Amino acid sequence: MYNNLSLLSVCPRWLSLKEKMLFENPTISIENLPNASEVTYQPLEKDYIMVQLFSAILLYASLFIALLLVLLFGFELFTDSIILSMLLYAALFLACIGLQVYVILAGFKCKGFCIRQHDVLYRSGLIFKRQVSVPLSRIQHLEIKRGIFSRIFELASLQIFTAGSGAVDLKIPGLTLADAEKIKEHLSKAIAHEQ
């Protein structure tokens, strides 16, 4: 019976085949990895703050009106006095709006994006920091979305979809429409070049 080593020593072609089949997986030192904090992020447009504020005000105004209608039709939640209930609702409404304004203003400074040669980065998060990286080789298609308030302030969001996912994998809000179109065109060309 032949063993594998004797066959490999007889045929040099098999020896080169064995060398090709060897799997190497060297260890990479953490010190040799690139520093993610060295990335320079582009800030979002300042008008995006107004888009977020108007959206929050519309949401809370809708909730306040719904609660007011419930109160006026006799479903008093806090007390038997309508005036006291209205004051409690108004105070709750103003506290929620104040908290939302703070979160929007403070959170805006934490948001940014970066377009690099091989990927797109987006960071966000006031309390829970989040950084998303999408390699260009995984991008399936791109969309530009504009809501009501975004159109008023001439802003847009660039949505990036990756292969194997039906949902938006990365959304960069608060871009001017011109910048969103420019980034979309650049990424489309880069994707075509990568394939």
User: Roughly how many Å apart are the termini?
Assistant: 49 Å
Q: Specify the CATH architecture of the largest domain.
A: Roll
Task: Write the CATH fold name of the largest domain.
Answer: PH-domain like
- List low-confidence stretches: none
CA radius of gyration is: 28 Å
> Count the helices. How many?
6
Structural class: alpha+beta
What share of the residues does DSSP label as strand, in percent? Answer: 15-25%
Order of H and E elements = HHHHEEEEHEEH
Q: What is the β-strand count?
A: 6
Sheet with the most strands, sense and barrel status: 3 strands, antiparallel
Name of the CATH class of the largest domain:
Mainly Beta
Mean pLDDT over all positions: 83
* Total number of domains: 2
What shape does the CA trace take? Answer: elongated
Description:
With 195 residues, this protein is an alpha+beta fold. The mean pLDDT is 83. The protein has six helices and six strands, in the order ααααββββαββα. The protein folds into two domains: 62 residues; 83 residues, PH-domain like. Helix 1 packs across helix 2 and helix 3 runs antiparallel to helix 4. The protein has a three-stranded antiparallel sheet, with no helix packed on it. A hairpin with a 7-residue loop joins strand 5 and strand 6.
List keywords for this structure.
195 residues; alpha+beta; 3-stranded antiparallel beta sheet; single chain; elongated
